Amino acid sequence: MVRLLLFVCLTGISHITYSQSGKFQFGLLVKGGNFTLPNAKSDLSSFRYLDNFYSRFKPGYQHTFGVYGEYRISTQFSIIAELSYRLSYFEYLENHHYTINDPSGILKGSSSYIYKSTTNSLVAPLKLQISPKKLPKWHFQAGAGLCHNTTVKNEHISMFELTGAQTSKAYTEFSANLWETSDFRSHFTTGILYQISKNTKIGIEYLFEKYYTQEGDSYFTGNPLIDFIYLGSYPPSMHSFSVSLQHNLLHKI
């Protein structure tokens, strides 16, 4: 990641010398889209009088702001390095409905859990761009890179209801600073962009970032075992489809 950062910075600094050749670009980028693919699951179970279990992930969102450097190898091929800040958010919900045999009769109860996670990250992909001769305004990109999560904030809301009892609600919050950790994650990205003006591109990009856990990794309560019991799984892998806008700050000659 340090080398990619150095590449992007040197590209911007050296534009005075090389911009006349038209081989270098240095600019700003903005992206925005979902965090993951929404999904829902419903199960029936007899565990502890549990009649029904329902869970789902909401699509969430991610916003990315940063810079990029592009070096044109030939008319059709370019290498692009990006360095950006990303804010991502996802939400996970669980609903339990159950019955309890009580001397007074059958009691119906429910419990609901809402998990909200907000993560700040540094993202640095390296991409290959292809611009076909017959479609010079269209740019196809594909590449891979690293992500380093810097901070994370998680919220856990619990609600319990039971026939004849007052509804109870609990709220907990967990935050962690990950700057000095080895919390690096790899990702794959691809997309298609269209040249809407001499220096500006707009398009659609897809990013896949697999979530994996490390020893002692905990994102919700500070305790990995408790996270597993309450959440049932760790955060989903990122499947982000986002609108991307890139603007070159160096004027083409």
Describe this protein with a few key phrases:
mainly beta, eight-stranded antiparallel β-barrel, 253 residues, elongated, 61% strand
Helix and strand arrangement:
Blueprint: H1 2-13, H2 15-18, E1 24-33, E2 39-43, E3 50-57, E4 61-72, E5 77-102, E6 105-130, E7 138-162, E8 168-177, E9 184-195, E10 200-209, H3 224-231, E11 238-248
Antiparallel strand pairs: 1-4, 1-11, 2-3, 3-5, 4-5, 5-6, 6-7, 7-8, 7-9, 9-10, 10-11
Describe this structure as you would to a colleague.
By secondary structure, the chain is mainly β. Helices cover 9% and strands 61% of the residues. The longest helix has 12 residues, at 2-13. The two termini are 31 Å apart.
**Tally of contiguous helical segments:** 3
Structural class assignment: mainly beta
N-to-C terminal Cα separation, in Å?
Answer: 31 Å
* Biggest pleated sheet: 8 strands, antiparallel, barrel
Proportion of residues in helical segments? under 10%
Strand order of the largest sheet: 1-4-5-6-7-9-10-11
Order of helices and strands: HHEEEEEEEEEEHE
Question: What global shape is seen?
Answer: elongated
Specify Rg, calculated over alpha carbons: 24 Å
> Number of DSSP strands?
11
Q: What share of residues are in beta strands?
A: over 45%
Spans of 5+ residues with little confidence (pLDDT < 50)? 11-20
What is the structure about, briefly put?
It is built from 3 helices and 11 strands, in the order ααββββββββββαβ. With 253 residues, the chain is mostly beta strands.
